[in-house]
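> Could you send the CPBP family intramembrane metalloprotease prediction when you get a chance?

Sure thing. Input:
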Amino acid sequence: MKLSRQTVVLLLSLAFFFISMYFTFEEKNIFWHLYTFTLLVGTAISILFGKFKDALPTWKYILFGIGFGTITYGIIRVGYIFLKFLDHGSIKQIRKFLETYGPNNIWHYLLLIFIIVIGEELFWRGYVQHALKQYVSPIFSCIITSLLFALAMALSGFIPGVICTFVTSLIFGFLYEWKKSMPLVIVAHEVFIVLLFIVFPFIHY
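Output:
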């Protein structure tokens, strides 16, 4: 069976992302450089082959973005509280992971806010999720995209991070399909990250 050009590009893009993520987690000392590079390439792929929806006026996507970003933060925080009571060993694993890969200087925060968050949304939502809708329904495209993103995180061996990635990706994926606005999911993701790491961090490392 001959694969279409769109399918080949999608498979090659995913292969690149997974291979790049493997080396990114292996090379701890240059993690931020490699992950930023990965997302810059992902952004370029998205611009060339993706499709970005923008169906909301500016005030609406900012308002909804702040709201859903805050809700997502709340969901992850509640999950952390439950995990803390159920499995204290996982909390130590989270702290160890963040000590190794978490942002710890202004440079990391700038990369996270201005390149990584935007790149993740453009690549996973604007390209992969959109491309998968050629083969499955929008609901399944959200689920599969979230699973793929979580599998990429699984290369780190960090299971709580895999769960967090899947949950947040699922929220942003369904939000994108519901409101048809890429700026909205980017704002929501930015708000989530700012709350998680800067304003109200609940994990100290």
